[in-house]
Design goal:
Strand 2 and strand 3 form a beta hairpin. By secondary structure, the chain is an alpha+beta fold. A four-stranded antiparallel sheet has the order 1-2-3-4, with no helix packed on it. It has a four-stranded mixed sheet with strand order 5-8-7-6, with no helix packed on it.
């Protein structure tokens, strides 16, 4: 009986528009590289925009600044990352790829994106650019005093 009630409530919500079928849809697979893609902003920081696109099991995470300028993007799957050649890709670091710049950090890194498996932080640099760093998210089991105090976990 309880199962029937849940179905009835779900059907009523769909019929009245309180719940759309798109709520169950996967993240979009198009729009990557656009200033204002047709995708939800999933940033954890109001000064940045983060968009996630999924294709063939790979998450493509794009970070834009507050004005919509594409800062960079990474592809992430199974703890592995690849920097995509959009935005200022030369300023994106991953565990597999280091960025090189002569600029120095102008402020402390701030977390921009965290989905529980991937974290992306942004660091304003002395030359006015922003460096992005993508890393696997730490679980509570991975956390030690040094790591947690420097990564905010």
């Amino acid at each position: 009986m309880q199962r029937m009630s849940r179905r009835a409530v779900l059907a009523a919500m769909l019929a009245t528009g309180l719940l759309s079928a798109t709520a169950f849809a996967q993240p979009p697979s198009t729009g990557l590289g656009q200033a204002w893609p047709n995708a939800p902003d999933v940033s954890v920081n109001p000064n940045y925009h983060a968009y996630v696109f999924v294709l063939a099991g790979v998450q493509y995470i794009q970070i834009n600044d507050a004005n919509g300028n594409v800062l960079g993007s990474v592809g992430a799957a199974g703890g592995q990352f690849i920097v995509l050649p959009i935005g200022h890709s030369q300023l994106v670091t991953t565990p597999q790829q280091a960025a090189t710049t002569s600029a120095k950090p102008a402020a402390a890194p701030t977390q921009v994106y965290n989905d529980g498996t991937t974290t992306i932080s942004a660091t304003p640099m002395s030359d006015g650019t922003t460096q992005l760093q993508a890393t696997p998210a730490l679980s509570a089991d991975d956390c030690d005093v040094v790591t947690c105090s420097t990564h905010g976990s």
